[in-house]
Amino acid sequence: MSLRLSTVILPVVRWHEGGRERWRRAEELGFHAAYTYDHLSWREPFRDGPWFGALPTLTAAAGATSRLRLGTLVTSPNFRHPVTLAKELLSLDDISGGRVVLGIGAGGNGFDATALGQQPWTPRERADRFAEFVPLLDRLLRDPVVTHDGKFYSAHEVRGVPGCVQRPRLPFAVAATGPRGLLLAARYGDAWVTTGDPRLSAEGSPAESLQAVRDQIDRLDTACAETGRDTSVPEKILLTGFTPGNPLGSLDAFVDFAGKHAEAGITEIVLHWPLPGTRFEADQGVFERIATEARGQLGRRG
Prior knowledge:
Blueprint: E1 4-8, H1 19-28, E2 33-36, H2 54-64, E3 69-75, H3 82-95, E4 100-104, H4 123-142, E5 145-149, E6 154-159, E7 172-175, H5 179-188, E8 191-194, H6 206-227, E9 235-239, H7 251-264, E10 268-272, H8 284-301
Parallel strand pairs: 1-2, 1-10, 2-3, 3-4, 4-7, 7-8, 8-9, 9-10
Antiparallel strand pairs: 5-6
């Protein structure tokens, strides 16, 4: 059974006080990729504590590692503009030697949605902005010169030279569950990202959550068919930590969880690096056993 295991390292530790060591350890443990959140701040208990910028963190991680793929889960238009984001991503892709993945989503209310002083966007406006943001960012990372005059974003003779190390551009992992977002994932996503159904996080059962993920993959397949995309092309990424149950409770629990989701169509599972005293609390020893032993057990299961 082919399933990639990755981790997400929240940017809450000073680089020289343990931050660098986490990224290095992620590579040593053999994770496929290590991601971080791209927010200006996040929910409790993180809102009033340390929280560092995603792209500088990933740049530092690129210098501290050599094989690990690096990315955001996820960037959004909440405080990003496609032109400046494209330049930073192009630079990061170069610095890392072509190891960058851009996780990108429409964003939401709260956290940093109003940090720049704007009023909260409605769900429709978030979808409208996302529908313009993703295609423009795609062009900015592919084409040497881009001009665009849109409803929300503009670009005037923006240069993208020399382009990404990864061709034709660095990969996009599009987070989406609604119809419009899934069409964007089908058209532009090298991968698709889900956290499951948020309505089931607190009250649902693991079986209900698994079925919800299956249903989301079915809808993605439908969107791919509508756009003429091979349904096997976009990777299917599950960011854990928001589904019922405790897959990090033991190695066996994780193997069971991962095996069922792989059978449902998930191709990459992302685990939060353990953070004591938060919803991502887990035993570090179990976490590291999962990183090093789960793939072998899943292979025997497959």
